[in-house]
Design a protein that fits this description.
Elements (H helix, E strand, L loop, with lengths): L5 H10 L7 H13 L2 H16 L2 E2 L6 E2 L5 H4 L4 E8 L2 H10 L4 E5 L17 H10 L7 E4 L5 H14 L5 E4 L15 H9 L2 E2 L3
Parallel strand pairs: 3-4, 3-5, 5-6
Antiparallel strand pairs: 1-2, 6-7
Amino acid sequence: MNLPSKILEQAVKQLATLPGVGKRSALRYALHLMKEDELAVRDLSEAILRLKTDLHRCRHCHNVSDTEVCPICSSEKRQRGIVCVVENVQDVMALENTQQYRGLYHVLGGVISPIDGIGVQDLEIASLIQRVETGTPYPVEEVVLALPTTMEGDTTNYYLSRQLRPFGVKVTTLARGVAVGDSLEYADEITLGRSIAHRIPFEG
């Protein structure tokens, strides 16, 4: 793609690094930003920069937050003895949208996938085990495994169930209203809500 400006070319190159954005879309975005008011563009760039400088990972559940402890973990209205284990932040949002779950979360940051070079040490598994073992910040009575119904998700579920077994904590999983191979963020809210509300004991 031949562009008349090195500055425009650099902007397109950076925009095209975003997921799902090709060079044509990146060019369209860049040309749109050129026409915008300078203050609006500054606000956009500042908001993007703050994602790296001011956004936190909750020290308890690893969800994104404006503070060191996220609003979910700090809420006294949540069922603090129940911890739902999810793959990513999008899954927290998906489950919250169902309004069927009132416990806490633990974001792993992925699932075990040797083919992708993702092992146990790359995920927030040790912090989950420590959370259950020490009861910090709150004693855990039930762990809900809400990982994708894929081979990698099932492998991670099985590994976690084995690691949690010595602590005598109740381990459950989503009812299979979620189709095999589906990611939670793409499931409709009614199906996902029923799956979390009617969770079943996990059997490795």
